[in-house]
Structures are given as structure tokens and as C-alpha cells.
Fold this sequence. Notes:
Helix content: 40-55%
Number of helices: 20
Oligomer: single chain
CATH class of one domain: Alpha Beta
CATH architecture of one domain: 3-Layer(aba) Sandwich
Low-confidence stretches: 7-12, 325-340, 384-388
CATH superfamily of one domain: P-loop containing nucleotide triphosphate hydrolases
Largest sheet: 8 strands, mixed
Amino acid sequence: MKKRASAVSTGGESLPDTTLSSLRAKSFAVGSGKGGVGKSTTALNLAVYYAKLGIKTALCDLDPLSNIATILDLSEDKLAKVQEEIPDGPCLPGDYTLPVFTNLDLLFPRPKLKRGESARLLSKLFASFAEYLDNRYDLLVYDLPAGIGQEENLSFLPFTNNLLVVTNAEPTSHVSAGGYIKAALEVAADIRIFFWHNKYSLIQDSGFNPRQVIENYNRYVQEELRLDPRSLKYVRDIAFVPHEPSLDLLQSSLSLEGSVRVKLLESCDLLQKKLLSDIPDGLDMDENSKNLIKHYIARRPRIPQVEIFCRELEEYYAGFYRNSGITPGFGKFLEKKKMKSFSDNNRAALRKYIRTVKSSALRERALRTARVIEGSLEEIRDGLRGAGNKAASQTEKIIHEYLVRLLKDGAACSAKLDGFTRNLLGMLLFYFALSKILNARSVQNLIYEFVPKRKNSRGVLVRDKNRQIHYLVEKDELYHAKYFSLIKTLFPVITNQLAALVKTFGLGAFVLRTAGSRETNRNAYLKLLTNFVHDAVHAGLGVFIGFKFNSASESIKKGAKDLLGELGITGS
Length: 572
């Protein structure tokens, strides 16, 4: 086992080992084997969250390219307050410290691309500045560059007890993560490893299990490169964060139509999954096994031929358990241990179930609508709307036609639907009405005028992301007052549009009503509007602070709290 470094050579400078031990205990490095997995976004969100808890936090940008400043949209004027180069000789910590929020400082925010600069940075952190950092901060977060560079990345690991490895739910990401861990253990054999899973989804193709990073790495690499799990002192999954468009840094400009179509797509997806779960399956197995099958069906909306589809499903199911190492807990469904095939009874039940699923007209309508909306989102993402406003108008018209058909089909059989399904259609109706009012230039202007702006280097007005992030994190009272004023203005517009759609298409069955009465549930509509506008105007900021009503936000908060518990740190 390699011994921890106790000091850094800086021309005779020495420090008590207790100082470095203290820094190791109250810090963690954020690393990844490959880029594009959300490493820096994760480091930033954790640092911001901890600062909000009252923990004095230092976010140390150790990436030579320094993209934390880019995510925060820091202006050149602000960056000019910190020194560009890290010298060999004496310097002050304040020369490289930029306060960004209450309880949060960004350290070394400028690019560090000159020869030997990473080595000088390491020396400043753990020798010259070590006592200052230990006295000033309760927690230090080290954002490392992607990959396994020795000077820029691995050389920092002996100075922390904890490594947060960020990965995505895909084989290449796991292979890269495993390779990174293998290299990390060469320089810090006793480091504790935590996995932070971004864009997480349990159900994957080809039986790939996204929870098994080490196992997947070993499965895909040569034997001599594999990791021995016994060589890892401590490994734990700390967070499973589903994909969240609001954290997509590529969405630098607002797209109201994109935001509402995401909500329409989510509503269609929830509806088709609910309709799927309502169909009696007749399968003799436990609920986990049934859910796995239904997840597979939900992710493959088109069922061509029943026999072919069922054979593919059987292969997927067997492969999932074979690759995951999990033993299915039912006994009758697959031959235990062998796990080669379904029993004859379950095979017959499965085919009957798939035929019934295929014949569900309302679910099929929801799937068709979802495909149209998904296609329009791809156009927005890929920038393929070169034909201009006419093409956009035509796309909007097609989406609205599909939505009307879906809602009218639902209304025709509403008496047979349970309350939850009717509420799902009611939510879909709300977002349909929202998409209609967002076509109005006056409504668009109201929302766009709310968003803070600044002039870029060419003198063009652009979104001021830094000011927006600041308003969210610091809870700016004026900003929040303007936000609720915007909601107050929009609410009567959306309720009038809802009433018009209900009257025109006979959709009274899908009006959200107060429990136990026939009164319209205005609070439910107000909450839907408030949440949508909040997420839409803050999309692409790269921070989850303020996003209270989505699963990604809850997953990040839980992971952040669990990691803090592992470090033994409590907020004020």
C-alpha cells in the first residue's frame, strides 16, 4: 500500500502533518474517466448546496481549462480580480480566490495551461496555502479534469481521503470510470470511492446494469487490466440522478416551446405507462419481474409481430439477470440458475398480455402523440428548423392535432377510466393550453422580459446566466417578487385558454377538481403553472437550486446529504 504524502516540497517549507490530515478529512475530489458526464456541473452543484447549508466551502477548480467559471457565466471583469499565472515564488491565497456566493469561494478560476502550472498549483494548495485553507473552510471540493493525467489529476489524489467518481449509465462511461479508478489506486491506494450516477436509468438495453461500475469495467476489459474489488478500501453508490433538461448546459438560450413540449412528452409517457399497468398480465411472478417486463414494453412503443416481440423480451429478461448477477425471486418464471427460458404457462400468458397491450387504442394514441412531440424536440435540439417560422407553425399545428385526438379519445371512454388516469389527461390538457398561449407574442415577451440580460462582447443583449444563478442562490427578494408578479399575470390567461379548450372539444371530464366537489382546483393549476415557468426560465443554468419539484433535484439533495454524512460534516 502506498503511503500518503505528508508534505509538498516548496523550498524547505514544512507543515505539521495534522494540517494535511485535516484537509484530507474535510475534502473530496470530483473526477471522471471521460468528459461529458457532468463532472464539473456535479462539483458546482454540490458546492453551492453545501454553501446554502451554511458550510464555508471552497470549490477548487483544478481543471487546466477551468470550466467552472464558464458554467457560472463569470464576466471577464470578475475574473480580472484574480491572478492569471501561478508563480514559483511567494503569493497570497486571496490573489486566486473569487467569492461567488455567501459561504462559497471559487479558487483558481482561470485557465492553467502553462508548463508546470498544475504542479505549482498543487504546491500552493497543500503547502503554501494549506494552513490558511484549513482555518478558513469547513469543506473543500476539488474539481479535477477528466482523464488520468498524472500532473493535472492523479497527483492531487494523495491529498484527500475521498474521491467522487461521476459516471453515466452507459458501458463506455463505466469502462472509463474503472480505468480511472485503477490509475487512482496506484497513487492513493486507501482512498474512499463514491459513485455519482448522472443520467441514471435502471432499465437499459442488452441487460446492462448501470449500478455495477466495477463489474461492468471488468467485463469489458482484458483480464490483466481488471480491478480486484478487494483492492478498494471503501466503495459506495452515493447518488442516482435521472436525466434533467434543466441541468443541460447546452441550453444556453431559452426555448419556451421546447420546455412545454418536454412537459407534453412526459405527460404522454406517464399516461401510456399508467394504461399499460392497468392491463391484467396473468403472469405468475413477483412484482419486480413484472415491472422489468413492463419497463421493457414501455421503452419500446412499437410492437411489430407479437411472436418476435415476445422472443426479444425473453432474451432481454434472461440477459438482464445473467449480466446483473441478481437471482430473480420467483422460481417458476425462469429455471433457477440456468435462467434460459420462460415456463410454458408464462410464455402463453405473456403472448396474451402483449396482444392485449397492442390492442389498447388509447395507449396507442398516446404513443403516436409522443413520437410526434419527440420528433419536434429533436428538431429544436439539432437546429434543423431552417425553413423558419412557417415550418415551426406547421409543426405546432400537427402537434395540436394529435393532442386533440388523444384528449377526445380519452373523453369518449372517460367513464371507464379511474381518477388517476383522468388526472393525467387533465395534466396533459393543461400543458396543451399552455402550448397554445405560448404561441402569443405578448406572452412570450412577458416571460423573456423577466429574464435578466447583459451585453456580450459584440454589444448584443444576451441572457445573464450569472445574475440568474445569483438571484436563485441568494434568494433575491426583488427577483422573486417579479417572478410571482409574472405568475399572477399569466394565471388568468391560462385558465381562460383551458376553459376555451374544454368547451370547444368537450373535455369537461379532465378538468382538475377539488377533492369531494365539482369545483375547479385552482390551486392545482396555479402550482402547475408556477413550476413550469420556474423550470422554463431557469433551464440551462446548470444549477438545481430552486428546482423543488423534480426527481433530479431530490436525488441530488439526497446524494449531497449522504456524502456530507460520510465526511462527518454538518451544516449550521
